[in-house]
UniProtKB/TrEMBL annotation:
Keywords: Kinase, Transferase. This is Histidine kinase. Signal peptide: none annotated. Gene3D superfamilies: 3.30.450.40. It comes from Arsukibacterium ikkense. GO terms for molecular function: kinase activity.
Amino acid sequence: MQAFDYLQRSGLLSEYGDISTDIDLHCRALMDYLTTARGDVRWQFQVPELGEGGACSLFGQLATEPYSLLPILGGDTPATQHALSKLSAIASYYQQHSGQDWFGIYQARPNVAGEPVLVKLAYYGAASRAEFPLNSEFAKISNNSTVGLSGQARVINSVADYLAAGGEYYTCDPKVQAEACLPLFDQSGKIAGIVDAEHFQQAIFTPAAMALLVAVCLIVPEYLP
């Protein structure tokens, strides 16, 4: 997918204008980096305890058992190892160049119960939920699920203002003041997942910041397992 097509399809064009030139520059730099870069593969990671009914995360309270990607990805294979390594490298690159406090890459796929979810494959930052239900009910409280269903980006430069205006927000970390949740599209144009970036300051998602994040969104689908 070309940068302009992504901006148009995700709904970002009206808010940020045609930033395709900057996106293309970031894409080339990221692809050059990925020719040799390898990231650390994490098959398991700590996750927060879920609240009553499993709807929300209890920040600061970690579950006893870590989350394992092995069941949902069908085991450890060379192809999956390669995919996770590249996704981890992308997360590292984004951390180095963005200054964002939290970032995650999620793929849309069925979980072990056959339910559609967004599963976190690579990230940096504080422990966070591993799976987000991908259904209309959960989307009422979750930007991740909303974007994963609609393919429309959601950028919140002030969480406080968003909540004051009546917006629903799934709080993983109360320090987060701004969030950008963007869709991933496969070669056919189908929604393949999302990326989520968060910052502890407001008004951080400028056109320049979004150009880098969109570039990541254009590259990530090539490496999804």
